[in-house]
Fold this sequence. Notes:
Elements: E1 2-8, H1 13-22, E2 29-35, E3 42-46, E4 49-53, E5 56-65, H2 70-81, E6 89-95
Antiparallel strand pairs: 1-5, 1-6, 2-5, 3-4
Helix pairs in contact: 1-2
Amino acid sequence: MKKIEAVIxxxxxxxxxxxxxxxxxxxxxxxxxxxxxxxxxHTELYRGAEYVVDFLPKVKIEIVVAADQAExxxxxxxxxxxxxxxxxxxIFVTSVxxxxxxxxxxxxxxxx
Length: 112
């Protein structure tokens, strides 16, 4: 099993969710996060004072899938989240040793 974490621009969330749904991915966890990479942030003007916005709003999507679905998920997320501009985000893929569904006790692929 693989865990896919994608940090994307917030306005791309619906596009990514719909694209994943089309390939049969039904469950995911979405968290509002803040951060920056090469984008670095920007300056804004508020009531005449200039200030730096270091951390930009992003959305983190977490999905656990069977190992053979991981590459397809990454491709779909990449296509749906891409704007072609700086700050489109990152995708991280890691291995998952064990999954347990709390309600039933089912494990691993049965629990996904």
